[in-house]
Fold these 2 entries.
Entry 1:
Amino acid sequence: MANPALGRWGGLIVLIVVVAALPLVLPNKFYYDIAVKTGLNALVCVGLNLLIGYAGQISLGHAAFFALGGYASAVLTTRYEWNGFLALGAGAVATGIVAYLVARPILRLKGHYLAMATLAFGIIVSLVLNREIWLTGGPDGITVPTLRLGDMRLRSAETWYWITGGALVVVTYLALNLIHSPSGRAIRALHGSEVAAETLGIDVARTKTMVFVLSAVIAAIAGSLFAHADRFITPNEAGFLRSVELVTMVVLGGMASTFGAIVGAALLTVLPQALAGFDEFKHIVLGAILVGTMIFLPKGLVPSLGALIRRWRR
Amino acid sequence: MTSLEVAGLAKSFGGVTAVDDVTFSITPGHIHSIIGPNGAGKTTLFNLVAGLYVPTSGTVRLAGQDVTALAPHQRAALGLGRTFQNLQIFFNMSAIENVMVGRHLRRRAGFLGSLFALPSAWADNREARAQAARLMARVGLEAYLDAEADAMPYGALKRLEIARALAAEPSLLMLDEPAAGLNPTETQEIDRLIQSIAADGITVVLVEHDMKLVMGISDHIIVLDHGRLLAQGTPAEVARDPQVVAAYLGGEPA
């Protein structure tokens, strides 16, 4: 692209227009619910893409951070009767601290070993949520009260559509800022060459930790929003398949492409609804899509399409 | 004050001693070269100085400060820059962004400032882009200002690494075989570039196989063989040294 800034902010404007115009074609509550799920997945994927696509680190445990945020909201608002927004903030901070503590030892690992370590972390969180029934309600999940803003009860699907859409626009804006900043270039340098990054004065361990914590905090906020939007959360949200699903979204949409992450999240949230008849085979289809993407579009949908359009213009 | 001081430096990999009890010092300014046959330990020595390897024994001092225990990024902050024998380009970025990463140590915006696009981050971006464009022009890459790094030819990437290292404003710049794989014209351009870098007051340490280049531009040469310091001195002194001649041409020293 001749002017990279044009593509960046042009993309954000397109996102805002899509979020603003989508309700015109959403016929009923069912579709609003899918739109909310899409937005929340996209939120997680924009953060996860910073880690996977830009910093070049893998995480097979990001669903755990989503669930930690969701359960923080659920537990604090039900058992301790906290204000919902306070609980959301506390959940985000607590998850950030957990991510920081996990990141330091884990991010020294590379490739398969990092994948294994994040996978193990996700499984541990999932186990705790299933077993600590006194706190989490166990496998049956936990009912979450309606989020209140003053006297307003944030309950309708439309309301949650706007909350999710707004959050997605804000997080996308922040991600774009970061990518095109000194810290963002340091993050991308890790992916390019850790050795070169180090010799240019970049603290590799610290930079990896920062981006890991940021992506975990975004996932936690999305989890809190999910818990209130659905008014119910189960340990399935922390599950391994959920983590794989998130990674699939990022890879399908396009690694190192913020809008790719959003497109990937949208496709893989809407597609299963369209393939409702396949039910049991959903994960097979998911796996097939991932394998197909790796073979035919190794750079993902959005970057591959972008390259195609550029070639076509010439 | 020495720019770089290496004392009793050694590095073994299992049973192989790649660098063996090497001691030398490098005075500020000028062009210094480290030469030696293949496997003499030149790149290992570079990696020890840069902090990528932990030495088995010995110390490394930068501008008088003991940096043996410091991480590579901390040594970079003390003014050490380098390029790589096997290119270490950020192929996931554009050419100019590669050089902009070199401005990392000069940034003012932190992580949150970057995230929220505070004025400091904008200023950093503007400054880094301007400096990077200037440095790319200086190394002769003005034609690649809008290029993606993965679309550039080998010779241009060699110079891109030099521009990126210069962006950090190092006081000591280590170049690992900057002319390797270049044709004679490109080698001449690199030759001139190295001299202009040294003329700016940056101490240059060169590892190079191209003897014509080394003999022509070096003020001081250090010769390694089998990990040991064989000789050092001016190009003329080193060329006369019978041990050096033997190491390069084979046979026993006369």
Note: The first helix of chain B runs from residue 42 to 50.
Entry 2:
Amino acid sequence: MSEVGVRLDKYFSEVKRELETSIPELGSKEFRQIRDRIRKQLKKKENEYMLVIRSLKIIIFGDWNTPTKRKKLNDAKTTLLKNGVYAQTIDDYYNMYRKGGLNQIQILETCCMNHQLMVFIDGESPGTITEQNYLSENYIFHGKVIFFIKQSKFDKLKNDPSQYIRMFPTIITYKGTDLLEKILIYSRFRIYRLADIIMKQSTTGRGLGSPSYKSWKERLRKIRR
Amino acid sequence: MGENLKILYYTASKLKNIILENNNIEILLYLAKHNPRITKKDIIKNFGEDSLKGLKNLELCKLVKEEKDMLTLTEEGIFQVEGLLSIAV
């Protein structure tokens, strides 16, 4: 816990400690050298691209009602962070936003709008079912979701198109040990793709600059009518 | 509450320019080393009054936040500084 009571995630606490020791003192020759190198390198297209990628956010959904399940979510988050992709887990999100007095659905709505990719690990706890139901109803978010389900469970459901998993356009199966690897692979593809689109749109002036662009809030309002 | 995708688009596509403007690189490195023990007065003392405009843009990008008069890097800010140092090697 920092001096002003801001609780940093374990990954960020460790990174912060490394930054404190590795960054030279302000005013020193070494500090100026690092600053100049950053300034020079940031003018290269590939490094600007890296900045955009790191500014995009993933939220990871899944069961977290036991320490083992919570660890699984955290391991997925740490894997993404260590590979240059920003991620949060839904339990951390609830912890942050509950203080503001928001209820679960309000938190979910905020979360879905604030994150560019939603990694959903199939689960069975009541909270996860609520989240699945929320996403099912609000289909405008479906394009942002990649849904991970155990191969064995998928094999039981795949021949019944009435099953709940039909609500997720992107379904990825995993076997026990390859979940983290698959989350990283597919998340990275999606985030890099979105970064490409943002870079291209900022060059062409299309997309969000368009007068016909509608915000997520407006789109949600339309489907609720 | 809720996403303003225009802010995201603005920050994602303009982030490079925001980081390059004024003393923002120095401010980010300085905060990474010393926060949350830094105030706006420290920023003015070390970087001048003009640096407050850049600081405000860093806050808009959610890389920095002010809490109880102390400036601190957000987790996103820490993440971006980590990335910046990786390209400076």
Note: The helical segments of chain B are 5-20, 24-34, 40-47, 51-60, 75-87.
